Amino acid sequence: MPVDTIDLRQEFEAVDVASVLAQLDQELIGLIPVKTRIREIASLLLIERIRQKMALATTFPTLHMSFTGNPGTGKTTVALRMAGILHRLGFVRRGHVISVTRDDLVGQYIGHTAPKTKEILKKAMGCVLFIDEAYYLYRPENERDYGQEAIEILLQVMESQREDLVVILAGYRDRMEKFFESNPGFRSRIAHHIDFPDYSDTELLSIAELMLEGQSYRFAPDARDAFVRYIAVRKTQPLFSNARSIRNALDRIRLRQANRLVSRLDRLLTSEDVMSIEAEDVLASRVFAAASAGNAA
Amino acid sequence: MRITQGCFSFLPDLTDEQITAQVQYCLDKGWAVNIEFTDDPHPRNTYWEMWGLPMFDLRDAAGIMKELAECRRVYGDRYIRVSGFDSSHGWESVRISFIVNRPKEEPGFRLDRQEQRGRNISYSTHAYAAAKPEGERYG
After folding, report:
1. Domain of A142?
2. For residues A42 and A38, what is the distance between their CA atoms, to the nearest angstrom?
3. Structural domains counted in chain A
4. How does pLDDT run across B47-87, given as a tens digit for each residue?
5. Phi-psi bin for B68: left (phi > 0), alpha (psi -120 to 50), beta?
6. In terms of CA atoms, which chain A residue is nearest residue B57?
7. In chain B, which among 17-76 make CB contacts under 8 A with chain A?
8. Is the domain of A213 the same as that of A245?
9. What is the pTM of this model?
10. Is A1 domain-assigned?
11. How confident is the model over A201-211, as pLDDT tens digits?
C-alpha cells in the first residue's frame, strides 16, 4: 500500500544512520572527504527506502569505490570499516570483507586465472571485495600477463551482480591514475572515487593519542610537546607515510620506555609509571639526531 | 513418475527464493554446499557427478545460486541436487540434500520380477530413461 507522506525523522531513526556516522567521526580522525561521501551514501539509502514505501521506481545504487591516497592515509582501515557501515545501512547482506591482492586473483598458467577469480568472487558474494594495490592487476610491460583476464571477469561481475557485491579498489594515487587510464571500463563502473588527503600535524597528534589510548598508554605533558616537535621534524624527512609512520614511532617509543623502566630495577612501579611515556622516550629518537645533523651541515 | 529424494521430497519443487533460503541456512551452519547432477534416476544411484569443486568458505547464497544457474544452463535436462556437507568432528557427512532441478519428462520405472528356485521372487527396478546411453536420456 503506497503512502503519500512519510515522517523523515522517524525513518532516520529506524535506520539508525546517526549512530553509524557518530561512530565514524569518533573512530576516524580527519578524512573529511571520506566521511562526506559516507554521509551522502547513507542519505541515499534513506531516500531509497522512502521511495520504495511510496511505490516509486527504485534502482540499486552502484557502490563500487576506489580509494586513492598516499601511504598511511587510512585506505585499508576505511575499507575494512566500510563493510560494517554498508551492512548496517543495508546495502550488503553480510558485514565482512574479503581482502585480496593480485596473487589471489591471477593464476600462474593459462586457464588458471578464470576459476581462481571466480572462486574469490563467489566467496565475496553478499559482502565487500577489497582489492589492495589494484594497479598490480594490470602489467602493461607483459602482454601475455593473465591479469587482464582477471580484470575482465571482475568488470563483468561488477556490472551484472551489483546488488550482490561491492568492490573497493585501493592504491597509491599516481599509479591508480595510470591503471584507470589503461582500463577505462573500470573507471566508469566505479561510482565513488575517493581521494584520501594527507593528515595535518594536529590530526597526526590526535591519531597518536588515540592509538596510545587503545594500548593503555598516555603521554606525559612534556612528552606530548616533544611528540608535536617529532611530527614536525619527521614530516620533512623522506619516506614519511602518515599514520603508519606514527604507529611505528609509537612502537619504538614503547620500546624505549620499557628499556628505561627496566634499567632501574630496585624500585616499586605504579601503574602510572608503566602507562606514562616521558619526554626522554620521545627525544631519544633518531629523527631528532638526523634533523640536528642536517642543520649543522 | 516424479522422482523424490532427500529433504523436502514430498513438497512441490522449491522456487529459487526457497532454494536460496535453504542454502543460506546451510552456510549459516558452516556447511560446505555442493551442486551435483546426474541423468540416472535410479534411487540407489548415490554417487552423482559434482559440478565444479566443493564450495568451502562461502558466506552468502548468491555465489551458489550463480553456480546453480550455470549448472542448469549446461545440464538443465538432468537431475540437479544441492547438498550441505558438515565437516565438523563426529559428523563428517552430508547433513542435507535436496533436488533443485529435474527433467521435463520423467518416464518412470519398470518393475522386473524374476522367479527363482522354490518359487521365490526377486525384484529389480529398471528406469526407462536408462535404456538410452548416458547424456541422451532426457530431451
Report:
1. 8-196
2. 6
3. 2
4. 999 998 888 888 889 999 999 999 999 999 999 999 999 99
5. alpha
6. A123
7. 53, 55, 57-64, 66-67
8. yes
9. 0.79
10. no
11. 888 999 999 89
